[in-house]
Amino acid sequence: MSHPRRALITGATGFVGSHLIEYLLAETDDAVFACRRSRSNLENVAHLSDPRLTWVETEITDSLSMDQAISDTRPDAVFHLAAISFVPQSWREPEQTFRVNTQGTINLLESVRRYVRNGGETRVLIIGSSEEYGLVFPNEVPITEDNPLRPLSPYGVSKVAEDLLGFQYHRSYGLHIVRSRAFNHTGPRRGAQFATSNFAFQVAECEAGVREPVIRVGNLEAKRDFTDVRDIVRGYHLAVLKGEPGEVYNLCSGRSVSLRWVLDTLLARSRVKPRIEVDPDRLRPSDVPILQGDHNKFTKATGWEPKIPLEQTLADLLDYWRGKVKKGA
């Protein structure tokens, strides 16, 4: 299969989903079936219009709704993005996090197993996270796919369960399932609750004079491996095309920077010089000190490498928020 003919995306209205739709419409001839809830915020996808794009109203936590979506669309490829992905939210709502991330994945895999006649050929990408690795010791960096999984948040635990469900359904039922563990990714349309985007949003508001010249932050010493979302969705497509079923792959830049470096890089582009204040509410019960990945396995399998420098990503992110603030968002 040179590329999927019918691609279904769960969580299609989200940050990554909107970029994945754009990528598939621009770079393939696929028919794209984009799942959304009746109450989904459509702001990220309002600009998308193409005869190959079909919206499918779906609720991932409702098995009957998922059955309907899969049986109606009969996809050749499934990109499973639907998730509660904000780590602090998982501390506040652990039960809901597991309902969406873990039960939702079971519903999807059961639907593919039961309702797609060529279920063994339908290619499913389970979108995991570097948060699965959790507690990482200094001698374990950079992190390979063989590193122990020691998740430190309800989100991380739910993603480990999702990851292993993908492996189990591949082994038990022969489904073509590839698992990814994407490290942090950012770029335009990233939600304001995430650190990089929140920094850019606060800078843009300070510049516009709608916020006092103060940037409120959490732990700036945490180090993360950031990749541009546009590189990540290109990687997801390659994972579906070339990934080995049953295998798991890291998608990352292979470089870690502190959140302090991210903030300093944004401030270097700012027209104002605000002061920095630590907000106790932004500190987590437990935090992962460093996440830095190794993408060699994925590169060998697919040829993928990140192309967009982080400095460019942050510049684009800041410009995105400047535009939003100017419009009064």
Secondary-structure element string = EHEEHEHHEHEEHEEEHEEHEHH
Q: Tell how many strands the DSSP assignment holds.
A: 13
CATH homolog superfamily of the largest domain: NAD(P)-binding Rossmann-like Domain
Overall average residue pLDDT: 93
In terms of per-residue confidence, which ranges show pLDDT below 50 for 5 or more consecutive residues? none
Quickly name the level 1 CATH class of the largest domain: Alpha Beta
| Helix run count | 10
End-to-end C-alpha gap: 43 Å
CATH topology of the largest domain: Rossmann fold
The shape is globular
Return the CATH architecture of the largest domain.
Answer: 3-Layer(aba) Sandwich
- What does the main sheet amount to? 7 strands, parallel
Radius of gyration using CA atoms only: 19 Å
Q: Give the structural class.
A: alpha/beta
Strand composition percent: 15-25%
Query: Domains counted in the coordinates: how many?
Result: 2
Strand order of the largest sheet: 3-2-1-4-5-6-11
